[in-house]
Structure formats: C-alpha cells, structure tokens
Amino acid sequence: MSNSLVSFKQLRIDVKVTRSRRLRIVDSATFDVEHGQLMGLIGESGSGKTMLCRSLIGTLGRRSAYIESGSVIFDGTNLVNATKSDWREIRGKKIGYIPQSALAGPNPVITIGDQLAEAINQGQKLDRETVHKRSIELLEMVQIRRPEIVLKQYSYQLSGGMKQRVMIACAIAQNPKLIVADEPTTGLDVTVQAEIMVLLKEIRKNLNTSIILVSHDLQLINSICDDVVVMHAGATVEKLPSEEIINALHPYTHALYNSRIDLVEPRGKLVTIKGQPPTVGAWPTGCRFADRCDFVQDKCLFGTQMELLKADTNHETACIRYDEVFLGAKK
Amino acid sequence: MTSNLFLRKVLGRLVRAVTISFWVMVISFLLIRLSPGDPAATRLGAGAEQEAVEALRKQLKLDVSPLEQFTSYTAGLFRGDLGVSLVNDVDVLETIRNTLPLTLTYIFLSVFFAFLISIPIATLIGWSNSASIVYSFRSITSVIIATPNFFIAMVGILLFSVQRDWAPVFGYVSEFPENLKYLWLPVSINTLILVAIISRVLQSSIVDTKSEEFVETGIIRGVGRTRFFFYYILKPSMAPTVVLLSYMMGTMLGATVILETIFSLPGIGRELVGAVLASDYPMVQGILLFFGVITVFLSFIGDLCAYALDRRVKI
Q: Whole-structure pTM over 0.90, yes or no?
C-alpha cells in the first residue's frame, strides 16, 4: 500500500488536559486514502474524527493535542515529524482544508478578496493582476455568481452556502492533492448541503484530488463517497466501499445504518443505538462497542481488539465475530 | 450593507443621540430643583433677611413656576445661551469653556496611554497558555477594578508626593511644560484603572478569537506572522474594547469629580461639585448637559469605530 496518498497507521492522539493529565482522543486510526479517492469518515461526536483531520493540517497543537504514537504518511512525508517549514510546504499547498462551520470559517474583518489572495499567495507575493484573475477563476469554479462583487464583500454579507463555497475556493487555490472537509455542511439547510456535496464531487473530478469528507450523517456520506471509514470511540472500526454498507461487518456500522431516519415510517418509532457511547478516554477493555452490541459474547470483552481484520479485498472490520455474526447468518 | 442603508442607520443613531441629549437636559433640570437648597439663600449667606432672599429670588427669576423656568431655559439653549451663574454672574458657557479642556486633556491622555499599554499586555496574556499567569493577571486587575479610584489616588499622593517629592500634592499651572508636572500623577492613576479594565476585556476577546475557526483557516493559508497577528487576532478582538471604552469615557467624566477634587485640578468636575453645593441651577444644568452630550456623542463615535473595525457589529 505504499502508493497511497495518505496512510494512517495506529495513530494515537492525546490531549493535554492539565500538566500531568492526558486524555486519549484517538487511540487507533488505521486506514489509507488513495489518489483521487473520495473517502468518507463517519462516527459519533467524540469518536476522534476532528482530531484526525487536525493531524493532517498540523493544528493539533492549538488544541494542546499531540500525536502520541503511530504515523501519518502523506505523499511520502511522515507528518508526525514535520517541521514548521515542512508544514508550510504541505498545508494550504498540498492539503486544502474546508472548516467545520461555514458560518465561522471566513475571517469576519477582512474582505473575501483578501482571503482568497492569501490562499493564492501562500506567503509569497504575486502581482495583483494574477491574483485577481485567479480569484475570479476560483469563485467561478465554486459556482459563485457575480464574483467581482463578492470579492469586495465581507463574510457577513454572504449566505451560509456562499461562505462555504468561498472556503472551498480557498481550499482549492493551490490545486491540492488532498482536501480535508470537516463536516462541511454543518449548519446549512438540506438543499444547500446537497449543492455543496455535488460541488465537492465535481471538484474531485476536475482537479483529481482526494477528499476526506468527515460527517456524522451516514446517508450523506454513503451517497457520494467511494469508501467509508467508520470510527467509534477513538478507533477505526470498519472500512468498506460505500455500496457495501448494507453488508457491513461491524455491529456498530449496522446499528448506524439501521438508525437512519428515512427508514422510519411517519409517526413510527425511531431506531436508536442503545446505551451511551463510552466516555472519551475512559474506554473499556475488549471491544469498545461491546456494551451496546446485540451480539456480545465473553470473548468480546478481553484484549484490545482494535486491529482491523481483512474480510474482503476492500473490506476491513474490527469485529472479531464478523464471521459468525454476519457471514454466518447469511449462509 | 449598501452605503445607503448604512447612511440611514447612522442618521438614525444621530437622531437617537439628540433625543437622549434632550432627556439628559430635562432630567438635569429636574434633579437640581428637587435637591434641597436655595441658591438665593446660599448666595446671601446664613444670616440673610427673609426679604432680601425674596428680592434676590425675584431678581434671579426663581420666583416663577418651574414650567416657566424650563421654557425660558430651553429657549435660551436654542440661542446658545446656557445662562449665567447664580453665584457669581459668570456666563456658564464661558466657565465650561475654561474648565472642560483640562478635563478632556487628561481623559484623552489616560485613554491614549491605557490603549498603548493594554494592547501588548492583553495580547501576551491572551497568548500564554499558562494558567498561573492568567490567574495572577485576573487577580491583579480585579483588585485594581474593585478599589475605589479616590483610594488609589490617595495612595498615589502618599507614595509620590508625600514620601518622594516627585509630584506636587495638589494645584495646577496651565502653561505647557509645567502643567505636565501637575498632570502626570492624576493621568497615571486614571490610566492604571483603565488598563485594568481594558486589558481584561481585550484579553478575554483575544482568547475567544484564538479558538475561532477562521484563525485555523488563516494558519493553513500560511498568512505571515505580522499580518496574522493584526488581521486574525487583534482586529477581530477589538470591537468590544472600543465600544466599552467609548462608553467609559462618559462615566470617566463623572469620575473626574472625585479625582479633580482630590488633586485640586481646576477642571469641570470640580466646577460641578462647587455648583451643586451652591445650588447654582444654570451651572449644574449646563455642565450636566455637556457631560450628557459628550457621553452620547462619544459612544456614537465608538460604535462607528467598532463597525469600521468589524462589520459584525450592529449599529
């Protein structure tokens, strides 16, 4: 798998809570993202998705988090040991980032044009004509009408969808190899959400970038991603092609899929996952989903059980009983 | 926002400012009349005859009904006439013109220095993640804010005027280089109090700004260090401080009453104290009206500045 664009191996991220207390946010993240792949990353709040993204853009330190062990290889560089000047070459240039909240993404005190110029310049100083041309081009790529006017505006003058389009324009300014989109449609209404997703898909096609799309909305991810990685309690528990989601081999993925809202008849009862997700950092031994799993057996409660097992060519799961529970049932 | 809408909002604010100033005038007119004391009796002294007091009241036109007094007072205002002092027949506007510059000078000086000092302090402390530094910063500023300003002033006099001969205990000379000798201590004390308040507000805004999502996008865009500091940290954090400061300039006018009395500075605050004690109606009204108008005007300017810095601010 050496030719993957991104490769997470046993990544472990801790947060400094106090001088001596550490909280483990991500315990075991292992998966690869191929060139040009649209990878969905899904999990509940607190499963470590956002921190995983931050490890790709080198801003863990801002939240007093750090990589405890493991590796993140991006395009041949191990980001764990990346220096400041390494980051300057990588983030913004090779890795674009679309922030979580569209509403707070753009800087409120400088114009959209200035922000695009920053993204286009990336520290160097290009002449104004080039920057202007490129800005317009980028805004057209993200389908913003009247780009000339938008360049002079401030973020408060734009709608949520427009703001997020601008953030996408900033992210693709350098034709990055990878775009990290951390729940890019939070706070946007459903139609705008769909538009943004279509736009992301198009950008992937036109620029041939890989995209890591983080979400807690399984349906959304399922409809546009190639592969899906499921995270639970700080660990990757399953990786599968999105069309395989109905044949998931981890009870958690199944439970997520079954609790989709569109399955429910009007006035029907919503299916939920029983119990609460384990508290961040206070994870039990054995399978971390065991408490909430319908198929739990004694052997699920021992060891670490975070290793991903290869079930099929493109399908990996952390459930040690996937054989008996899912494949067995089919037979 | 189109510039047209902006203009309309500004005009709306101006109308509001004028309305508020009108009410300030009405209230100051009523307040001074509701307080005990008779200007005529005060002027003639304790042993004055009843007839003499009555005669003086008639002469000062205090014998007519309050409503008539009010109409003639407002009519005067429209002509730019604030009346004359009931105590020494000096023109009120003239007195204000003589005393206000000193007060405004040391207020603006202390605001200027307070800004100069607060920004680096707030930034450094907002930047540091050390809990003990933040904790001591909060404690020190709390103590300064909680201590009454006259007490700080007296401690200042004790330290710098009595124990060391660095500043005169009180008094004032209005010539330029000399006046600094008299002004530096009151200005420093005012600055100290302002720094405590401003740096605290600014520090907490900076902490808030630091965790904003757009800061992260700025880092990713490789924004240079200086630009990052000014446009991603300081500018988005300034608006609350600017608004607060403009409101505080108004309350500071009130505080000058105390500081000017302690330092015997011939400013407008001390003039106000004297006028209130003598029930000098036109003088009190005139000064309070000026205080009101200045306060309203400054907060209007402050809001405009905040808007210029950060378009999220509503005006």
A: no
